[in-house]
Structures are given as C-alpha cells and as structure tokens.
Amino acid sequence: MAVAAHCAAAGCCRRICRDKAGCTAETEGARIVFQYVRSVIFITQMYIAMPLFGLAFAPWAYFSRKGAYAACKSYSRYVFWTAGWMVGMRCEVRGTPPDGEALVAAKHQSFLDIMMIFTALPSAKFIMKREILRTPVIGLYARRLGCVAVDRGKRGKAIEKMVADVHAGRAEPGQLIIYSQGTRVAPGRRMPYKVGSFVLYEQLSQPCVPVATNVGVLWPKRGMLRKPGVAVVEFLPVIEPGMARDDFMELLETSVEERSDALMAEAGFKGLPNA
Hints:
Distance between the termini: 50 Å
CATH topology of the domain at 89-266: Glycerol-3-phosphate (1)-acyltransferase
Strand order of the largest sheet: 1-7-6-2-5-3-4
Order of helices and strands: HHEEHEHHEHEHEHEH
Strand content: 5-15%
CATH class of the domain at 89-266: Alpha Beta
Shape: globular
Mean pLDDT: 86
CATH superfamily of the domain at 89-266: Glycerol-3-phosphate (1)-acyltransferase
Number of helices: 9
C-alpha cells in the first residue's frame, strides 16, 4: 500500500513538472511575441520620426553646422527615450569621450552604436559613401557635419584629400569616427581590422580613442526583435600618436575586442569564444 502511494505521488510530481515546463514554455513564447510586437511598433515610429526631425530642423541646418548637430542629436535622444519605455532598452555611455581633435576607432554592430557614439561626442563626423551625400535630406546634414565622402574603390584618394584639408585648415574640426572592421559585425563573429585606421592615425597625427560596444546583442544587425537590457558604448584609454603600425593595430584590436566581449557577456550573450 505504501509502495502504491509512493508511485502515485511520483506520477503526480512528474505530471506537475511537465505542466510547469509547459506553462513556462508558453509564458516564454508569449513574452517573445509581445516583445516582437513592441519592437515592430518601436521601429516603425522611429523611421516615421526620422524625416520629421530632418525636415523640421532643415532650415536651421542649411545655414548652420550647429543646427545640423542639434537635429541629429535631438533625433538620437528621441530614439533612446522611446527605446527605454517601448522595448525596455536603456542606452549607457561609459568612459571619457574626447572633446578635441581625435580619431575615434569604433566597433560597429548596429545602427544604435552610430547614434550613441555620435551623441556622446561634441563635434562628430563620419567617413561615408559619396552616394549618401547626394540624397536630399541626409546629404544636407552629412555635408553640414563635415562628413568625408568616399567613392567606391577610391578610399585612398579620399583619405589623402581629407588629410590635406586638415593640415590646410579647410576641414571641419571635430572627432572623426571610423569603423575599423569596415562594416557591422554581429556578436560572436570575428573579422579583421583594416589598416585604414592606422593610415588615418599616422597621417592625421591625432590621438586615437578606441570604442567597444555590446549593442548588437540587444539591437541586432538583422531582424526586428529589440531586446530589453543595457546597451553600452565605452570609450577606452587613448592611444597617443607615434606608434608603429603593427603595435597600433594589435593594441587597437585587442583593447576593442576584449572589452566588447566583456560588455556582450554582461548583456547576457552566450556565443563568445570560451564562454
């Protein structure tokens, strides 16, 4: 009789465990669907707001670089704010952004790190494809910010002209942002660092500030799902001018990759090597 009672209790426990597991799976599935819906709404309103901000600030931006910065930073802060209450994502900048002339060599994982780095710097500008500068509204802002236009296959000539403009005092002052791997890189993937970072570092004779990030964990390169958590960009210790190429490239890659791995682990990413 005792054995029968024990078996009945064990069977009941197994059923309870199965029921709990099923409920947990259903709850998790519902949570993901709800987060996905919130993400779609967030992304939709974000892209609707972009031209509205652009057009609203255009008269000021047309005549003033200050107006262009005000527009871009206002829009970025609007995105950070809506990300916080719509999808539960908080944006955080760590470290010390440079306030003078500098080369900012950043890890690039998604559109979000562009906005976060740009907003953290007083006078940011980018290297971008020339086609972008030809678009009606974005082109206006890019030119006002002092962004450097690059033709396909002619990056070297663009860099030479930019360096000459800097030395001649024709270039807009500020912090030049370059993505050292040349493209967005998903969390967990490894891609080589391009030597263009060193070419700029050497020829501009400016300090280089590496930037690490984990934003791709919460705001991925592809897909619509935006995850709750803390998205971080972190400005790392300055690399002063004068380093040799191999030493510079090794220090840049090591510092950015190691710190980015730590930030991604902090955000809960499990796909890192040796994780």
